[in-house]
Every structure is written in C-alpha cells, then in structure tokens.
Amino acid sequence: MTKKKLYWICQLGGWLIFVLFQCLFAQLNNTLTISVAISQIIQFTFGVIISHLYRGLIIQFGWLRLNTLLQIPLVIISCLLLAILHDYGQFGLESLINIAGNRHFNNVIIASGVLNLAFVYFLWSLIYFLFHFIQNYKKAEIENFKWQASINEIELNKLKSQLNPHFMFNAMNSIRALVDENPLKSKEAITQLSNLLRNTLQMGKNKVITFNEEMKIVNDYLALESVRYEERLKIKMQIQKGSSDFEVPPLMIQTLVENGIKHGISKLTEGGMIEITTRVEKDKLIIIIRNSGQIKENMETDSGFGIKNTLQRLKLLYGNEALLKIANQDSNTVITELIIPKNMINHESNNN
C-alpha cells in the first residue's frame, strides 16, 4: 500500500468515525434529526478539506523538519485557527440552507464547539506527526544498516587484501630456502605455488567458498611445506563426509594450518605433526587443527597477524555465531577449534 493511499484511507475514515460518533451521541440524546445529519455531513466535508489544506501547509513550510519545541506551539495555534475557520465556515453554510439553528448566539456553545474541533485537529496533527516520525526513524535505521553493511564490506575486503600478501610472503620464503639446497624440489614447489595462486585468485572475490575448495588450497599448501620440511612434517586428516555441505571464508583454514606450522612445528628441531579433523553438529561445522608445539600464555588471541585477521573476518561474516579458540591441549600439542555456522549473518550468496 502506498503512503498516498494510506493517507486517504486514514483521512476519510478518521473524519467519518468522528461524525458517526456525533450522530450516535445525538441519537442517544434523542436529538438526531435530518438537520443534524446534514450538519454532520457538512462537518465531515469541512474536516476533510481543511485538514488536507493543513497538511499542504505542513509540507510546504517544512514543519516536519523543525525542532519539537517549535512544532508544539505552531500546531496548537494552527489547531485553534483551523477550528475557528471550520466552525464559522460550517455555520455560514448551514445558515444558507436554514439548518444553523441558534447555536452561534450563545458564546458558551461557540467556545465549546471551537475547543472540541481544536482537540480533533490536535489529535489529527499528533497522528500525522507521529506517523512521519516513525517513518523517518525506520528510514534512518535502514540507512544506518546499509551504512554499517557497507563499512563491513569495505573492512572485509581490506582484510582479504591484507591476507593474500601475507600468505605470499611466507610461501616465497619457503621456496627461497629450497633454491640452493634442492633445485628440483624448488621447481616442484613453484608449480605448487602457481596452483595456489590460481586458486586464490579465482576465489578472491568471494566472501565464502565451499569446504572442498578450501581444502584443495590447504592440500596444495601442505604439499609445498612438505617439500620444505620433508620428514619433519607429518600430516593426518579425518574429514567427516557432511563437511562438504558447508562454506567457509577463503584461506581461513589455510591460515590456521600455516599458523600451526609457523608457530609450532617450525620451532621444533625434530618437527612434528599437523592433524585436521572435522565433524558436523546440527548446522555447524567444527574444524579441529592439532599441531605439535606450545603456545605462550595469553597468546590465544594474539598469535600473529593471521589469527587477528581470522577473528575479524569471522566477526564480520557470522557475528557471534562463529567461534575460534586456540589453546595448549597438553605439553606437546596445540589445539585450534574453528566453528562455522551454515549461513552468514546477512544471508547473502558467496558471490560478491
């Protein structure tokens, strides 16, 4: 329903209800006559016309944009003037058709009639201003929501653009370490890196990708790191079948795996194991990453750029529905738990 249609329904309906109550009151007091009924028809007509002109005055002079302290006196004065115009205009028309009676020869009756109409116009004003206040408030809320969504989008894109160079820097360092030591393996590593680049570039415009696509990136990354660490890096995976039904933010699992290798296994002379397991509980995907090593106290939320970035991306995409926890499972193992819900908070598709 359009605002214009709603206005006319309320305008005609409101004045109709008012005059019907007047007629009902007259009927209860046994004073309802043909003249009284005609008088109420005139009152209805004057009410619709004058209040509509009043609305035009409000719009033309921009009263809806004024401060409330200015609106109140303007409305009160306007309602009194409109009531006087209505009352005397109605009396003049009734006099022309000889149904006016003698009510305008009694000052008390005149004052009572004007005050009653002034109250009706004040009630009309209250409803009209309140409706527009609510409309403007809703509009402001929608604009604020759009603005916040836009800010979130910008922030998310900023985080993604920061993440890729960070990942590339670490991957190039891995290859550089192989160039002199083992040229053949360095060539193999470059091939694996090109696969990673191709996949990340193809998925870079997406907020989320399928779990299988993310795991392809993880596998390429682990293959690259296996070339570097050789027998020092052992890999184990247990992926529940239903995991493929979920979508995850690009490079998120890879970032956590990279974190486990960089801050755990790389610091151990004998190397260690990285284990990735998943399970599905209701509408949430639970990803567990275990890696050899230890984290320092209070390092859970401050273990480098990648983890801070991951926390921010989860907050922007899922609100409080997602979870990331990093802790020491025992004296030799760090456990990272990532919980991803089925849908993003904005319920948008994964294509930006």
3D architecture notes:
- This protein is α+β, with helices and mostly antiparallel strands and 352 residues long.
- The protein folds into two domains: 3-143, no CATH class; 182-341, Heat Shock Protein 90 (2-Layer Sandwich), CATH 3.30.565.10.
- Helix content is 63%, strand content 12%.
- It contains eight helices and seven strands, in the order H-H-H-H-H-E-H-E-E-H-E-E-H-E-E.
- It has helices at residues 3-28, 34-60, 68-96, 107-179, 183-203, 211-229, 252-263, 305-318, and strands at residues 209-210, 233-238, 247-248, 272-281, 284-292, 323-328, 333-341.
- A five-stranded mixed sheet has the order 2-4-5-7-6, covered by helices on one side.
- The longest helix is centred in the middle third of the chain and has 73 residues, at 107-179.
- The radius of gyration is 37 Å and the shape is rod-shaped.
List the keywords.
Heat Shock Protein 90; about 350 residues; alpha+beta; 2 domains; two-stranded antiparallel ribbon; 5-stranded mixed beta sheet
Topology:
Layout: H1 3-28, H2 34-60, H3 68-96, H4 107-179, H5 183-203, E1 209-210, H6 211-229, E2 233-238, E3 247-248, H7 252-263, E4 272-281, E5 284-292, H8 305-318, E6 323-328, E7 333-341
Helix pairs in contact: 1-2, 2-3, 3-4, 4-5, 4-6, 4-8, 5-6, 6-7
